[in-house]
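Quarterly update from the structural biology core.
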Amino acid sequence: MSFSAVDMEEESGASAAAAAAEEIRRLPAEVNWEMLDKSRFFVLGAALFSGVSAALYPAVVVKTHLQVAPPPAAATATAAAILRRDGLRGFYRGFGASLAGTVPARALYMAALEATKSSVGSAAVRLGVSEPAASAAASAAAGVSAAVAAQVVWTPVDVVSQRLMVQTSATCRYRGGADAFRKILATDGVRGLYRGFGLSILTYAPSNAVWWSTYAMAQRSLWRIVGAERSESYPSLMAVQGASAALAGGAAALVTMPLDTVKTRLQVMEADAARPTLASTVRGLLKEGGWAACYRGLGPRWGSMSLSAATMVTTYEFLKRLSAKEGSLG
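Predicted structure, tokenized:
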């Protein structure tokens, strides 16, 4: 190979690196952990995410009924049965308990997410990792740490709220979230409140890692299509972030569906006769309907996770910009 060919390759590599750096520079500025007014971030976050949770809760109720009920049924038929039996109130059973856990769980999630993303991203860049790779690695690490931190609160909340979701007026065992908490604690102890905790970590940690890294990469790809110069337009910014989140959420729903079904069964099943185990729960599901039984409720979960992801992320990014310290965005 001639020296001129080597020079041309080096110039080509330098041009590509410069183009990548320019592309990154033109993307919307990232609001990192150090730029946030923490008190405003958590107060506004609690209010915004509570509203989003209320809007999406009925789909979670339908999904939970589909996962727990032995005979397979369509999502529309299940929703119609809940409406006929309990009215609109049936779609919000357990919502109070879920909402009570939303504030501390979201606070833990957001704190772990932003702190990890900021520290890992900075460390990766200092080690010489390229900006896109550092961003993907930081997002993946942040997703794992956020999932683990949030499950400390979310698992007991899930156990209580899901028990309330599936009970009906005819089979009403709990009078509310506090009553369910006391009875589960009295029957199974703390272990009962954390039933499915390990499976939750196994489900949500890799799911969050894939979700946040995919979200970061999808945003970059969509900005290439749309044109980074349009990032100054707020509607374009929200559309790209929402579409990226919906793609990541739908994929995560499909990948984690079997684990979520098993986890939900474990958390909802009563321990009156024999304590349910992971093996017995999986055997029961396979006996009922083979591997297809593990995907019951996929439609509502796919829809709710895609919609939830798009709504949550656009709300989250909007929240970070609302919470940015004066002058931090330049």
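The mean pLDDT is 79.
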